[in-house]
Design goal:
359 residues, alpha/beta, Rossmann fold, Dihydrodipicolinate Reductase, domain 2, 2 domains, 11 helices, 14 strands, binds NADP nicotinamide-adenine-dinucleotide phosphate, GFO_IDH_MocA-like_dom, nucleotide binding, Gfo/Idh/MocA-like_OxRdtase_N, NAD(P)-bd_dom_sf
C-alpha cells in the first residue's frame, strides 16, 4: 500500500474522534494536525484518541490559516457545524488542500457547486463523508439490486420501500430546556432533515437514483428547524434506475425514536434491513420470500471492521480514491452528493425552512 496521507482535522467533537480512529485503522491516513478554536481542546482531543501512535508528533493549531499553511498536511477532514462547511472547505481548497467534508456537504446547492468549481480549478480532491454507502452490507445489497438479471430472478419488480433513520437526540432535551444547540438551529444549518434525513435519502438515491418528485411533512420545533417527519420519494420507470414505479417512505427524527426496520417491498418478497442506527451500521440484510416466514440472510454478518461507528470502510475508500487518483469514482460520488442535496434543498424549501446562510 502507498504511504499514508497526512491528515488534519477541523472540529473536535466525538465524530472526529471516531473518524480519526477509523482513518488509522484503514491505514490510509496518519493524523498530523488538529485545529480547534482553543489549543487546550486540541490537546485534549489528542489525549483522548487512543489510535494516535506518537501524540507529541501531532501539531495543534488555534489559527485556521496557520493549519492550512502547514505544508505537511495532505488532506483536511472537516467536521464543523453544517453552516461552516462551506467557509472551511473553501479556505482549505484555496490553500491547496484536499478535503473530506462531513455530511451534509453544504447548506445548499449553490454553495456545493462553488466548492466543486474551486476543487476542479485547483485539481484537488473533494469528497463527502457518508459512511453507510461504503459499508459492505450496503454494497452487497446495491450490487444485487443493480444487476437487472439477479434482481429480476430473486426479487422481481420493486413496489415500494420504507427507510428509517429516527433517533431521539439528547440535544432535543436541551431545546426543551430553552437552549439552541447547533444541530437544531437555523443559524448552523441544523434540523432533522439536514442531520438525519440525509441518511435515508442518500441510502435511497444510492440504490434507486434520483426520484421524479419528493415531499416532506415535518414537525417544526421551537427553534424553527424540523425536529423530524415523513419524506415521500416517488419513482417512475424513467427516474428509477430499477425501471420500476414505486414510492419510498423515508422517516427521519431527532425528537423520537423509530424501532422499525428498513424494508424494500418486491414482487417476490420483502428485503428487511437492520442497522444499529437506522440505515447505518447495517448488521443484517434478510430476504423473506412472499408467503414464507423464513428469512434468508444476504449480508455478511462477520464484517472485517468492528470498531466504533463502522467509519473504517468510508475512510478506506475515500483514502483509496485520493491515493489511486480515481477520478471516476470521485465523479460518481459527487454526482450522488449533488442529487441528494438538490432533493434535500427542495424538501426544505417546500416547508419554508430558511437557514441563516441564505438570509
Ligand atoms: N458521519 C456521522 O456519523 C456523523 C455523526 C455526527 C456528526 N456528523 C457531522 O459532523 C459535523 C459536526 O457535527 P457535531 O454535532 O459534532 O457539531 P458541533 O458539536 O456543533 O460542532 C463540531 C465542532 O465544531 C466546532 N464548533 C462548534 N461550534 C462552533 C462555532 N459556533 N463556531 C466554530 N466552530 C464551532 C467545535 O470544535 P472546537 O471547539 O474544537 O473548535 C466542535 O467540536 C456535522 O456536519 C454533522 O452532520 C456526522
Amino acid at each position: 500500500m502507498s504511504p499514508a496521507l497526512n491528515l488534519a482535522v477541523i472540529g473536535t467533537n466525538w465524530i472526529t474522534n471516531s473518524f480519526v480512529q477509523s482513518a488509522h485503522e484503514s491505514k490510509r491516513f496518519t493524523l498530523t494536525a488538529v485545529y480547534s478554536r482553543k489549543i487546550d481542546t486540541a490537546s485534549k482531543f489528542i489525549d483522548e484518541t487512543p489510535s494516535i501512535a506518537n501524540a507529541s508528533a501531532v501539531k495543534t493549531y488555534d489559527d485556521l490559516d496557520a493549519l492550512l499553511a502547514d505544508a505537511s498536511v495532505d488532506v483536511v477532514y472537516i467536521a464543523s457545524p453544517n453552516s461552516l462547511h462551506y467557509d472551511h472547505t473553501l479556505k482549505a481548497l484555496n490553500a491547496g488542500k484536499n478535503v473530506i467534508v462531513e455530511k451534509p456537504f453544504a447548506s445548499n446547492i449553490r454553495e456545493l457547486n462553488e466548492l466543486f468549481r474551486v476543487a476542479d480549478a485547483k485539481d484537488l480532491w473533494l469528497l463527502e463523508a457518508y459512511r453507510h454507502i461504503q459499508e459492505p452490507n450496503f454494497l452487497k445489497l446495491r450490487d444485487l439490486l443493480n444487476d437487472p438479471a439477479k434482481k429480476n430472478e430473486k426479487f422481481g419488480p420493486i413496489y415500494g420501500a420504507s427507510v428509517n433513520m429516527a433517533v431521539y437526540s439528547s440535544r432535543y432535551a436541551k431545546v426543551l430546556e430553552g437552549e439552541e444547540p447547533n444541530v437544531l438551529s437555523l443559524q448552523f444549518s441544523g434540523g432533522s432533515l439536514w442531520d438525519m434525513g440525509c441518511y435515508p435519502i442518500m441510502f435511497t438515491q444510492a440504490l434507486f437514483g434520483k426520484p421524479a418528485s419528493q415531499s416532506y411533512y415535518p414537525v417544526i420545533i421551537r427553534t424553527g428547524v424540523d425536529g423530524g417527519g415523513h419524506i415521500v420519494l416517488q419513482y417512475d420507470a424513467k427516474s428509477s434506475n430499477q425501471k420500476d414505479t414505486f414510492t419510498v417512505h423515508a422517516h427521519t427524527s431527532k425528537i423520537y425514536t423509530s424501532t422499525a426496520p428498513t424494508e424494500i417491498y418486491c414482487e417476490k418478497g420483502t428485503i428487511r434491513i437492520n442497522g444499529a442506527t437506522g440505515v447505518t451500521d447495517i448488521n443484517t440484510v434478510e430476504f423473506v420470500p412472499r408467503g414464507s416466514k423464513e428469512a434468508e440472510q444476504l449480508a455478511d454478518t462477520n464484517p472485517e471492521y468492528t470498531g466504533l461507528l463502522n467509519l473504517t470502510w468510508e475512510a478506506k475508500e475515500l483514502g483509496r480514491i485520493i491515493v489511486e487518483k480515481d477520478r471516476k469514482t470521485e465523479a460518481s460520488l459527487r454526482s450522488l452528493s449533488r442529487d441528494v442535496l438538490e432533493v434535500m434543498e427542495d424538501l426544505r424549501r417546500q416547508n419554508g425552512i430558511v437557514f441563516a446562510a441564505e438570509r
